[in-house]
């Protein structure tokens, strides 16, 4: 698996990471055994980057990763977690006291003294403009609670604001063939500043996998059912904000690029990689997705 330095963290990680929202909740039922098998399959395929959050299953995702890390202490896993969604979304709640409490909880869940990377979890735009928030994040680093911090964002403007902060190690933003705008300014700005870019929702919640039809149904507790139109949180988090039926049709067009084993990259070009599922709730899909990193994808 190809490795790259993750921005200002200074740590090398696999170019293909494992997002673990689905191990916590929001993607239908995933048993503990299946969750641990997904983590194992990913690592065996060369993945060394896990992304999670303290609210995924109210900590279940972090706890499962923590259990896995205890069983595989030499796997060299870099864990990026997120915080900030446990309170009403106003800048006044992004305080040092809350940051300490949230990171202490994540450290306990993961079983580590220092978090590799903590990211603000899609905070309001006003948070990005608040110096005290980033001063508090710097304090977390000084105290040894976290090794580095970043921001997960909803918009390109938020990303650019975060990149301009000298302590920001990474920015996580939706990037896939439906959402290419970050390539215009965000990715170049991050490269110039030495800030890492973590592409999230790369397969548009599975739409770009080619596995779904217009008749596909998801479980009631799957966000692809209950948040399809932004009923519970930002619509962009589900199918990248694309209408499901239109997305299925678009996936067919993208699938034409897949003839001969070539699949679309986030930038709209094609790379050699095996077919991969849109979510990684099964070990086989973790292995298939990891194969992209061995082929430049």
From TrEMBL:
Residues 16-252 form the NADP-dependent oxidoreductase domain. Residues 259-297 are annotated as: Disordered. This is Aldo/keto reductase family oxidoreductase. Coiled coil: none annotated.
């Amino acid at each position: 698996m190809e490795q790259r330095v993750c921005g200002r963290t200074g740590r090398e990680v696999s170019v293909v990471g494992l997002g673990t929202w689905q191990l916590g909740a929001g993607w239908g039922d995933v048993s503990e055994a299946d969750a641990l098998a997904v983590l194992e399959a990913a690592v065996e395929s060369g993945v060394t980057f896990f992304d999670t959050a303290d609210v995924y299953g109210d900590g279940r995702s972090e706890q499962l990763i923590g259990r896995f890390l205890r069983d595989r202490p030499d796997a060299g896993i870099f864990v990026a977690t997120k915080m900030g969604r446990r309170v009403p979304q106003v800048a006044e709640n992004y305080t040092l006291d809350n940051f300490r409490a949230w990171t202490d909880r994540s450290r306990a869940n993961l079983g580590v003294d220092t978090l590799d990377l903590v990211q603000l979890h899609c905070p309001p735009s006003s948070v990005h403009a608040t110096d005290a928030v980033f001063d508090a994040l710097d304090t977390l680093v000084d105290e040894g609670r976290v090794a580095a911090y970043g921001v997960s964002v909803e918009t390109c403007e938020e990303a650019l604001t975060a990149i301009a902060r000298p302590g920001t190690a990474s920015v996580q933003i939706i990037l896939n063939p439906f959402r290419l705008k970050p390539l215009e300014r965000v990715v170049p700005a991050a490269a110039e500043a030495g800030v890492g870019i973590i592409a999230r929702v790369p397969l548009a919640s599975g739409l770009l996998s080619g596995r779904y039809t217009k008749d596909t149904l998801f479980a009631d507790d799957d966000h692809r059912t209950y948040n399809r139109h932004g009923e519970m949180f930002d619509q962009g988090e589900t199918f990248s904000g694309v209408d499901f039926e239109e997305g299925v049709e678009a996936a067919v067009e993208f699938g034409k690029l897949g003839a001969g084993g070539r699949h679309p990259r986030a930038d709209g070009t094609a790379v050699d990689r095996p077919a991969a599922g849109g979510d990684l709730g099964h070990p086989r899909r973790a292995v298939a997705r990891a194969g992209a990193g061995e082929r430049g994808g």
